[in-house]
Each structure stands twice: as C-alpha cells, then as structure tokens.
Write a structure and sequence with these properties.
alpha+beta, 3 helices, 2 strands, two-stranded parallel sheet
Length: 79
Amino acid sequence: MTTTPTVLDITQNDSIAARGGDKLKRRVAFVTGGTRGVGRAIVGLLARDGADVTFFDRDNAAAADVVVAAARSAGAKIA
C-alpha cells in the first residue's frame, strides 16, 4: 500500500511549540531550501519552537515571502 506524503501546513496548532514551548528561544537556525517540502516544514517548526530562523532558497522569491510571513506570524524573527 502506497501513501501520498503530505506537506506540513506551518499554520497548524499541533506543532512542537504548541505542545512544548520555547525550547529554542535565543537560538538561531539556518535552513537551506526553506521554501518547499522538508525545508519549509523545518522553518515552520523551528519558528514555532522559538528559534530565530534564517533560510535560503536560490530561485523561489514568491514562496520565500509566504514562508517569511508564516514564520513571523508564529513569532519568529526571520531573515
């Protein structure tokens, strides 16, 4: 049986931070490929867990704007 992978919606309330708090507060994370797939999910989870996040994606500025807005709404400082 094959299952279809799902993309994590970083606006959901069931993240690690919603359960656990600010484990990464005052920490900085750098994520490559942060605008899609696993990278985007990681940016969202790090932001929700209190980390300040810097991410890079070489060719997807429109998607980067969406990720920035979502991470900021989760309370992260993001560059």
